[in-house]
């Protein structure tokens, strides 16, 4: 409470409106699985398009795991991301699963990173792809450029810059970096410039130009597509190695020093010497340019269940696999498209969704399962936080222009997002067109679905005149109260929204005034849901109730700081079976 000590007028702002609860997003998905490139650990970043995914995680080329043939395996994660955005998805998080190839001992461990060394001992530095994968076999192009003349004032010259001297009558064609007359710029105690170091050396006497050298670095894929360029970098190892350090975001990491017994690159001239030792000789061509090729990058071995489960290090904020998704709050659906060990990984997805409470797992069956096979696969699942979809979806592969069967979870996640935006989360995400489908791996007729639907296996159907559609909306729960996907997702939405919207209540004074504010906030939120058509009832009092008073709390609750609010809602269930009863009647007889 403010102090009023001096006479005067005090203007204070008051808040008279009740607290507002905002609905959370339900359309954000999280996918995990192997891909061609990208980070393996840390918090995943949100992706909003396929091109953004490709910049971070590589293209849709096949994955070549150890012991695979050269043709490799279908990159299901890339196809799932493409399907997600094609079906209407907007926001996606990706957790890359990678299992490195192992050697007989730790010294032989292959971490999957492309790498190369530049220089001749003792002046050596290494170039390493930031992330593992065959796409990490990059090209790195270095270009040394001569800047403008800094004489007579030397304005713009920095301590540690590598400078080059030009004198009238002594110019000659420079074909290699080693031929450059260069020195390191420094300052004496009196503030005057001093030039020292290796190179050919020079005197300022008779110089008509003093120019600082800069370095351009461009990173390209093995096919020559540019991944980024950094121009005008001062030729100072500290600046360059910091820019391309472990904490940077460039596709490569520059590492000072190579192996035991080699010196570090101490200054810009050492860096020039290392560049001069590259195989192409650094001939003068639009600047002094050389390209280094990284080798050794690979896709590791086929990930197992433990790789999908992941590990977490809370102290460092690092995580892998599903543990990465525990760092993100706004994910609503999760999937592992095309996971090799479907039974094990689906159980991990379910455990994660139940642990995080406000998520649902989209499960893929193994490929080429019969109706009997998928029923047997379904029998091992039971959760109201998961839904199973069958069969796999057939698309026209944009890479080969041939039909390709893909796991359904990527399509379903996109349909969920589209349904939430165009309709609402309380509407069942079914009877929706699968935009990217040209068919399905198995043709499901009404007779087969009569067997599969009651068991919670959501089918894709090709319907005459209606196209290829998702034709099921059930969870894999044995509890009939939670058998519908939209019911589970809507309650998740309500619970998560109320959870986030009432955080302000913690440590407030526990009394009638606070209870009234909680009742008002929750009631206003549910009233808006009823008005939008999400709750059953022709009046608000038929659709929901909110109690937060002495009837919901005992004296023991009050003494122990527990505020208990009882909320009841009447949700809408989908019209899964539309029954039209038709009979004959006589025209002159009233109905």
Give a short synopsis of this structure.
The protein is α+β, with helices and mostly antiparallel strands. The chain has three domains: 29-100 and 301-486, Rossmann fold (3-Layer(aba) Sandwich), CATH 3.40.50; 115-293, no CATH class; 505-591, no CATH class. The chain has helices spanning 50-57, 76-86, 237-243, 268-276, 305-309, 322-325, 342-356, 371-378, 409-422, 446-452, 485-501, 512-531, 540-543, 555-559; strands at residues 29-33, 46-47, 92-96, 115-120, 123-129, 139-149, 162-166, 182-187, 193-196, 209-220, 226-234, 252-256, 288-293, 312-313, 318-319, 333-335, 360-363, 386-390, 393-396, 403-406, 432-433, 439-440, 457-463, 467-470, 544-547, 566-569.
